[in-house]
Amino acid sequence: MRPSGRDLDSLRNISIEPNVTKHAEGSCLITIGDTRVICTASLEDRTPPFLRNTGLGWVTAEYGMLPRSTNTRMRRESASGKQQGRTIEIQRLIGRSLRACVDRSALGERQITIDCDVIQADGGTRCAAITGGWVALRLAVNKLLKAGDIVSDPVTDYLAAVSCGIYAGQPVLDLDYAEDSSAGVDGNFILLGSGRLVEVQMSAEGATFSRTEMDKLMDLAEKGVSELVAAQKAAII
Question: Alpha helix (H) ranges present in the chain?
Fold first, then answer.
């Protein structure tokens, strides 16, 4: 029995509310169980120096957790003057995942920055950030298309992410904190809407796993991502 009472292959409740901020070109509040992340997309008519005069655009991301997004207050990273290694790793993951579904030549020489701010954490924050980040990206690109600033859609597919792991000896979908903190195996799966893999992060957290178990986790991830993509479609109608 999972602590939440969910079936082994059940996601937590999902909610994606689009256009939650006034100024960002694209935004949403994504809620997965008790994990809540605000994602915003900001458009800039410039690219990083290494892309100037190439005709290619860029998508990048920043990630952060508010001090009371967890059960005890965390110190703001700005107070220490530097980001933690975990933060840097996650925002790089978000950025490269989103670039996997973007035709950068169709985007043109402009940059879209996806900011993902965790306001409440209960496991799976990076997966929620990627899933919500795609919605913010999609909404921002829609504005470019509507304004005629670009002639073809640079977003080539849906993109979502979900965690899977082995908890109490059983492969489970979408780990919450209670499961994540004691799982024997933990993984994050990022997939396109077509089902093609973008990235898989898997590690043994005290127990090894077999190829058969890995296949079961992959099956769970495909099911979970298909449900997340359905939520994305409903949010951007």
Answer: 77-80, 85-99, 104-107, 125-147, 177-180, 211-235
Report in angstroms the alpha-carbon separations of 20 from 16, 59, 132, 155, 214: 10, 21, 12, 21, 37
CA distances to 9, 34, 134, 154, 233 from 97, rounded to whole Å, are: 24, 23, 9, 15, 18
- pTM of the shown model: 0.96
The annotation places the binding site at 86, 124-126
Query: 131-188, pLDDT tens digit by residue?
Result: 999 999 999 999 999 999 999 999 999 999 999 999 999 999 999 999 999 999 999 9
* Biggest alpha carbon–alpha carbon distance for the chain: 57
What is the three-class DSSP state of 221? Answer: helix
- Nearest-angstrom CA–CA distance, 181 and 158: 29
**Quick check: helix, strand or coil at residue 62?**
strand
Binding residues for phosphate: 86, 124-126
